[in-house]
Every structure is written in structure tokens, then in C-alpha cells.
């Protein structure tokens, strides 16, 4: 029994939905279950008491509550969830209005009006909820004061009508204020969460992805490669003689060198390619859907641009070069192995003169075969 109830409550919840969306789905399920049960029981009692018009209204409301829950389950989309919430709120408002007109059981029908503001505000949000409540308030006022008592099955005094509307407006105001505050708090928390997430994945110096962010991109690209069977390439770049740059210019200027190099590297990449600061003076390139030879051509353009254009560091022209190691990632090569092979190719390039590109596939059998090194 408990497991079936739990299954009902969490039906429609998806891992790829936002937390706010899943929370609304759960609450819709719960509210629909409560609304369906209460209206069905009250409808049955009214039927036993031979109040057939009231029982029919309550039975219809029970069916509408059930339909609102099923709508968001069977059609798992944002549009379906919107229609589900609209149906649920409309059902509640129409039912409440009918209870006001008919009086319900012993003229207690108007008491259900206080359910409308919190439910409407929670499901519809501040703006749409406020508009819905304004329309509902105007409708209630028209029925209460625009028609004579003969139009009602129940008789209400003028004082009761005015106090009913005043108290309803008070509850509506408090519900709107609470929903506005809740949404502001949620938006602030979401913004801070996104900022913390960004800081966790990005390097504060260059604004590129950091090692953690790059690793997530590598895992995602590797999964895509396994599905499409189309290889991609990774490359590691290391700034040549960066320690001497730091020793000569100072660490602040060394940081500026890294920032400018990051901009140069980024300027020649495609939109689908990824650049990250791998650590220290090392950068990682992820060339999506690109073979090793094509990645080498792209890096050659970057290497040439960096080596020929001096950097302007605090008014001084500084010539900087970088060495690159590349490895192609295919179904037979996992990401960790590809990174190690790219790192080996990088050190081979540095050991053989720096300012050059070395492909990992070219250093196994013969280091100098197939144009293993691209020299300036």
C-alpha cells in the first residue's frame, strides 16, 4: 500500500527536470489526490442526503481533479504541466464559486474560498496567480452584489458578503506576498548555485574551463563518440620556458601572459571546440568530431599566430611560444590513455626544440616519420 502511494506521489518526476519542476509535479499529485478524495466523499454524502445537484457538482469536480493529475503524467511536457495546473485551478475556482452560489451544506460552502489564494499562487506563480485571483475576485463580487438574493440558493446578509470578500482579499494579499518572497528567494538561491557551479568549473585567471570542467567535457565527448563512432582529438599545450618568463617579468605579468595566450588560443577555435586551463601553464584542447591530422592543422595555425605576434605585457613586447601534443580518441582508446599519450607527445615536442606540434601516433614506431614535428 505504502509503495503504491509513493509510486503515485512521485509519478511524473524525472531526473532531468529541475528541482522546482519536480516539486510542483509532486504537489499536483498530492493536491489532486486530496481534492479528488474529499470531493468524492462529500459528493457521496450529498447524494445520500438527496442533494443531487450538489452531489453531481462534487462528482464532476472529483473527476476533474483526477484528470488534472493524469494530464501531466501521460503527456510529460511543459505544455501538459501548464494545462494540468490550469485545469486544477479552474476546477477549484468553479467549484468554490458554485458552493458560494448554492451555499453547500448548511451554507458552509463559502468557507472553501480560502483554499483558492494559496493554491493558485503556488501553482500559477506570482504574476499569473495574481491575475487569476483578480479575475476570480471580480467574478465573486459580481455574483454576490450584482444579482439579487433570488439568484442564490442560499441567503447571505450584506455584512457576510462584504466580510467574505474582505477576508478573501486579505488572504490573497498574504498568499501573493509569500509567493513573491518565495520566488525571489528561489531565484537568488538558483543564481548563487549557478555562480558556485561556474566557479567550480572555471579558472578564475583565464575564465576558461578548469581541469574539473574539462574532465566533464571529455566524458561527455567520449560518450558521444561511442554513440556516433566518430573520433575526436585532445591536445595539451605547454607555454615554453614559462618559469623564465615569471622570473624575468614577475608573477603578475606572468598571469597576464597566460590571460593573453588564452585569448589567442580561443580566437582560432570553432564553436564546438573546447579550451581549458589544464593546470599551471598547460592548456587542453578538445576538438569535437575531429581526426588527429585535422586537429594538428588547427593547432599549427594557433602555434604560428602565437609565435609571430608578440604579447604586449605592461608596455613591453614579449615573444612567447608553446609546444603541443595531440592524440586521437577513438573506440579503442579511453580518455585517460589519450591524455597520457598527448602528454608524452607534448614532452617529445619540448625535448626536440619546443615551439612545435607532435602527434602521438607519430612517435611510436619512428619519431621522425610522417612529419612528426612541425618546426617553425
- Cross-sheet strand order for the largest sheet: 2-3-1-6-7-8
**Helix/strand order, N-terminal first:** HHHHHHHHEHHEEHEEEHEE
Radius of gyration: 34 Å
The proportion of residues forming helix, as a percent range, comes to 55-70%
Distance separating the two termini: 75 Å
Q: What would you call the structural class? A: alpha+beta
User: Main β-sheet: number of strands, strand sense, barrel status?
Assistant: 6 strands, mixed
Shape: elongated
| Range of strand content | 5-15%
Count of DSSP H/I helices: 12
Total beta strands = 8
- Low-pLDDT sequence parts: 365-376
Domains counted in the coordinates: how many? 2
Q: What's the rounded overall pLDDT mean?
A: 88
List the helices and strands and how they pair.
Blueprint: H1 2-9, H2 19-48, H3 52-74, H4 78-102, H5 116-124, H6 126-145, H7 158-201, H8 211-228, E1 232-239, H9 242-249, H10 251-267, E2 274-279, E3 282-287, H11 292-308, E4 311-313, E5 316-318, E6 322-329, H12 335-351, E7 357-359, E8 373-374
Parallel strand pairs: 6-7
Antiparallel strand pairs: 1-3, 1-6, 2-3, 4-5, 7-8
Helix pairs in contact: 2-3, 3-4, 4-5, 4-6, 5-6, 5-7, 6-7, 9-10
Amino acid at each position: 500500500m505504502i509503495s503504491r502511494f509513493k509510486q503515485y506521489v512521485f509519478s511524473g518526476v524525472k531526473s532531468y527536470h529541475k528541482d522546482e519542476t519536480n516539486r510542483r509535479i509532486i504537489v499536483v499529485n498530492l493536491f489532486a489526490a486530496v481534492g479528488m478524495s474529499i470531493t468524492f466523499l462529500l459528493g457521496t454524502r450529498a447524494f445520500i442526503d438527496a442533494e443531487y445537484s450538489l452531489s453531481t457538482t462534487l462528482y464532476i469536480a472529483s473527476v476533474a481533479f483526477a484528470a488534472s493529475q493524469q494530464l501531466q503524467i501521460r503527456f510529460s511536457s511543459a505544455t501538459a504541466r501548464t494545462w494540468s495546473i490550469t485545469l486544477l485551478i479552474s476546477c477549484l475556482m468553479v467549484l468554490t464559486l458554485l458552493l458560494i452560489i448554492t451555499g453547500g451544506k448548511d451554507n458552509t460552502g463559502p468557507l472553501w474560498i480560502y483554499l483558492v489564494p494559496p493554491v493558485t499562487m503556488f501553482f500559477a506563480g506570482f504574476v499569473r496567480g495574481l491575475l487569476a485571483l483578480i479575475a476570480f475576485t471580480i467574478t465573486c463580487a459580481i455574483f454576490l452584489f450584482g444579482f439579487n438574493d433570488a439568484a442564490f440558493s442560499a441567503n447571505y446578509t450584506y455584512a457576510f458578503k462584504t466580510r467574505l470578500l474582505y477576508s478573501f482579499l486579505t488572504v490573497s494579499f498574504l498568499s501573493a506576498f509569500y509567493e513573491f518572497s518565495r520566488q525571489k528567494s528561489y531565484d537568488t538561491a538558483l543564481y548563487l548555485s549557478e555562480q558556485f557551479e561556474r566557479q567550480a568549473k572555471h579558472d578564475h585567471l583565464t575564465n576558461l574551463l578548469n581541469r574539473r570542467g574539462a574532465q566533464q567535457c571529455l566524458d561527455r565527448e567520449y560518450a558521444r563518440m561511442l554513440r556516433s563512432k566518430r573520433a575526436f582529438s585532445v591536445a595539451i599545450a605547454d607555454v615554453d620556458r614559462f618559469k623564465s618568463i615569471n622570473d624575468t617579468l614577475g608573477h603578475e605579468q606572468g598571469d597576464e601572459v597566460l590571460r593573453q595566450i588564452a585569448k589567442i588560443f580561443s580566437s582560432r577555435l570553432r564553436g564546438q571546440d573546447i579550451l581549458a586551463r589544464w593546470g599551471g601553464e598547460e592548456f587542453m584542447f578538445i576538438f569535437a568530431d575531429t581526426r588527429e591530422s585535422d586537429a594538428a592543422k588547427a593547432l599549427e595555425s594557433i602555434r604560428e599566430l602565437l609565435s609571430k605576434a608578440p604579447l604586449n605585457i605592461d608596455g613591453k613586447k614579449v615573444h612567447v611560444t608553446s609546444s603541443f601534443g595531440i592524440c586521437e580518441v577513438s573506440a579503442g582508446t579511453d580518455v585517460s590513455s589519450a591524455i597520457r599519450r598527448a602528454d608524452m607527445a607534448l614532452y617529445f615536442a619540448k625535448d626536440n626544440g619546443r615551439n612545435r606540434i607532435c602527434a602521438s601516433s607519430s612517435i611510436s614506431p619512428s619519431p621522425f616519420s610522417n612529419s612528426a614535428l612541425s618546426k617553425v
